[in-house]
Design a protein that fits this description.
single chain; alpha+beta; 14 helices; 24 strands
Length: 632
């Protein structure tokens, strides 16, 4: 991370991993460094002129990003980076990185509690050790003590529209007025600590006014704050239409100040309808003018039809109609109602009778003997994914409320650039995994038993309450509280995935944070999906050494499955955990699940530890609700 060119501080101030810029601290977020905090600037300020980089190739993901962000996006780019920093920390590589700016720009002296903004001139900056950028710091040059550390004043304002602003210390302490004795009053911040919330007093040295920050906290405290100014500091702009939201006080480092909105896709080879659609799109200029009756002639005279030889005229005509419908639907504009479908091509490959040819990005293996006899009632298919490549793209972010992975319109997405971006940040990881498909007849029989149960009803009603509450202070128009309900099948598959991840982590040495999941559950177009992929998704050697793939061997998989299902029957938090259901007014989205038995790290779970319930996998209260009433 480097200071921006417009800043007087042009030196590296820290290091983060590429994946960190995708999930934890991307564009618009605050990064809490050892001595101060910085804000990741928007894409307009990123500079690739000296960087060693090349676009990340993943056509499926790029098309999905274009459908949401806009057709202006033509590339997926890694973070700017240049080799040679270790050898020469003052060389060209030191000037290549992700641009940041100090934020909040109000600092407090740790010796005398002087509070002031960076542009007040009372604080100085030093970063004299190129090999130790973490020691960069601001100090109070005019303090009685020698260069005492100045730290960020730890309060900022934010709203549900995604705006972020400085806390108005001068207006707050003077109750919305100017200081009676000075045009630029001196302030002090006295942080008294305490266990009942913030206990920080702001005092004006010139006029003696004092006010505790507690008066700005909570719903009642919002009355003491100005209206949101619509500021996007990462873009250095204010929204021209302003903002009608009430700002909230946040502490620097709060977990809800920034939520990444990302999309990810596995680099799977195209097959079936997906391959046909892609081929038609690639040769659209040549195919579009031809009527269906001329396809037979075109096969021998139009070069584009050489790539379509494996499909019939009827299949090509259907693909042409689908592509024409997509064009007529105006895909140049972002799609607000739903994310593009990135899972169907993956499911088609994993569930295919014949596995695709192996390549450097994707290699699958299936045991010639099929599923072990002891597990035939548990799994219908087991596939070892020896090579996987996952590409992730950051398409925006939200504040205060986390985005819904199924509903992009639920929370306001903040853009990454001032104008239409030509690219978005992306990262890629390589790893391995295990794909497990469950028997369809087993799932259908279980759904018939569980669908009308009290437990499923409680989960459905809690989902509606959760959706309503997620809207915070936004206006609800044509709101369907049950939209994107994942269904009982998803809960069962998701619970099994977590059980296996925890067992792999406990027994086989993988940290749960190094594993990820992809749930392939039923959809309106294909209600008979039922599979899970557990794979490594970290940019280091732990995910590519073959350890996870080896767990799909018959003996290993039988042992892991038995232990996972056996452990699920009991939790050290029982009977509280076993009896839990989200009854009114609760809006949490899990039943018999907790940190002891089912929860995993947030980066591992694709749904934030929601939609989990042990009672749907094993018998803990009602045997009819269990997908697996007996151990294998």
């Amino acid at each position: 991370m480097t200071e921006t060119e417009t800043s007087p501080f042009k030196r590296r101030v820290g290091n983060v991993r590429p994946s960190h810029l995708m999930f934890t601290s991307g564009v618009g977020s605050l990064v809490d460094l050892p001595n101060f905090s910085v804000l990741i600037k928007g894409l307009d300020d990123w500079n690739y002129q000296m960087s060693d980089w090349s676009p990340i190739a993943e056509p499926r993901l790029l098309a999905a990003v274009q459908a949401v962000v806009g057709k202006s996006v033509t590339e997926l780019r890694p973070a700017p980076w240049m080799e040679g920093l270790d050898k020469n920390p003052n060389g060209p590589a030191s000037r290549v990185g992700v641009p940041v700016a100090p934020f909040p720009s109000w600092l407090r002296c740790t010796a005398c509690n002087e509070l002031g903004a960076l542009d007040s001139g009372i604080f100085e900056f030093e970063n004299t050790k190129p090999r130790k950028p973490h020691e960069a710091r601001f100090f109070h040059d005019k303090c009685k003590r020698k260069k005492p550390l100045a730290v960020a004043a730890r309060f900022v304002l934010s709203c549900t529209a995604g705006h972020l602003d400085e806390f108005p210390y001068r207006l707050f302490v003077h109750r919305g007025s100017d200081c009676a004795k000075a045009t630029h009053p001196r302030l002090r911040m006295d942080d008294r600590g305490g266990n009942l919330g913030a206990n920080v007093e702001i005092a004006c040295v010139n006029c003696g006014e004092r006010r505790n920050i507690r008066e700005a906290m909570g719903k009642r405290g919002e009355e003491n704050l100005p209206r949101c100014r619509g500021r996007h500091p990462h873009l250095s702009i204010f929204d021209p239409q302003g903002c009608d939201k009430d700002p909230k006080v946040l502490v620097v480092g709060a977990s809800n100040q920034w939520f990444a909105q990302t999309m990810s896709a596995l680099a799977v080879p195209q097959s079936g309808a997906s391959a046909l659609d892609a081929t038609v799109e690639r040769h659209w200029t040549a195919i579009e003018p031809l009527p269906t009756m001329m396809y037979a002639y075109a096969r021998g005279n139009v070069p584009a039809f050489r790539d379509l030889a494996q499909w019939s005229d009827e299949e090509i005509a259907e693909a042409v109609a689908r592509h024409r419908a997509r064009l007529d639907g105006g895909q140049d504009e972002p799609a607000p109602d739903a994310y593009p479908d990135l899972r169907t091509p993956e499911w088609e490959v994993f569930s295919a009778t014949s596995l695709p040819e192996e390549n450097n990005d994707f290699t699958l293996r299936r045991d010639l003997d099929g599923v072990p006899a002891a597990l035939t009632g548990i799994y219908a298919d087991v596939i070892q994914a020896e090579r996987l490549r996952e590409v992730r793209a950051l398409i925006g972010f939200t504040r205060l409320d986390a985005p819904d992975p199924e509903d992009p319109g639920l929370v306001t997405r903040v853009r990454l650039a001032r104008s239409k971006p030509g690219w978005v940040p992306a990262s890629e990881v390589r790893g391995e995994g295990i794909f497990l498909r469950l028997p369809e007849d087993l799932l259908q029989a279980w759904e018939l038993r569980a669908e009308k149960s009290e437990a499923i009803r409680a989960h459905r009603e809690a989902y509606g309450r959760y959706r309503r509450n997620r809207y915070s202070d936004r206006i609800m128009t044509d709101f369907d509280p049950m939209a994107h309900w994942p269904g009982a099948r998803f809960i069962a598959l998701h619970t099994l995935s977590h059980l296996l991840i925890r067992t792999i982590s406990l027994e086989c040495g993988y940290s749960s944070a190094s594993l990820s999941e992809r749930i392939y559950s039923g959809t309106e177009d294909n209600p008979h999906r039922g599979g899970i992929l557990i794979y490594t998704a970290v940019p280091d050697a732990e995910g590519t050494l073959g350890g996870l793939v080896s767990l799909a061997e018959p003996d290993q998989l039988l042992r892991l499955t038995r232990r996972a299902l056996a452990d699920a029957r009991h939790c050290s938090s029982d009977p509280l955990c076993a009896e839990r259901l989200p009854h009114h007014p609760a809006d949490f989205l899990h039943g018999a699940a907790c940190h002891v038995c089912l929860f995993v790290s947030e980066t591992t779970c694709e749904r934030g530890n929601r939609f989990l319930d042990r009672r749907f996998l094993v018998p803990i209260d009602d045997t009819d609700l269990a997908l697996y009433p007996e151990l294998p």
